[in-house]
Amino acid sequence: MRYFFHICDGPKVFPDEVGERLSSPEEAIDQAKFLAAELRKAGEFCRSSVIFVVDENGHRIFECRAS
Q: Does the pLDDT of residue 43 top 80, yes or no?
């Protein structure tokens, strides 16, 4: 299944229009947590970001903050 990792920073939304094919929702959640950790490394600028994981059917399966 394809999963999309949209990033929201306040009113700005950075949609993932390509997504990534992964074997399970758990793998997508792990990927989102990794992405959040990478955004934390960017400093204060990205710490308010929220990552939303959406499957190819449009179901939101997870969200996490970069902080």
A: no
